[in-house]
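Q: Structure tokens for this one, please.
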Amino acid sequence: MPSQLPKGFSRPFLKVFHILEAILLVAITLATIAAMTNEFVNIYVNRQIQLTDILLMFIYLEVLAMVQQFVTNGKIPVRYPIYIAIMAIARYITLGMKQLDGVYLVWLSLAAFILAAATLVIRIGHHYWPYEKVTEPHKCQSED
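A: Here is the predicted structure, written as tokens:
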């Protein structure tokens, strides 16, 4: 449904919104790259790579993939945050394996399984019931 706001209000608002969006995307990208660099320096200084470091790198990689998807397509597939959540749970389990209570460990594992199953259901759903292509109305040069 098209917006009911007057065009005199919505156009400047959308321009400000797009500028803020671009600034935040750059900030997220730079912060992720800084965090990855910090992790690499930490690995280099300690001269030791642990599984938790690798899982953290996958989380950073998924954040960058989300930014790339948003810049390319203007939207983020729901799978990407689910992948990040699965990696975060796996990292949490790996970090605290010795301190975690058995029941809590089972709950965390069940949460990761549910997220993986949700991803599978989403992928199957997109295969059998893909989104319809939404075509935007053609803009005239005079509207810009």
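A few notes: The chain is about 75% helix and 0% strand. Residues 138-144 have pLDDT under 50 and may be disordered.
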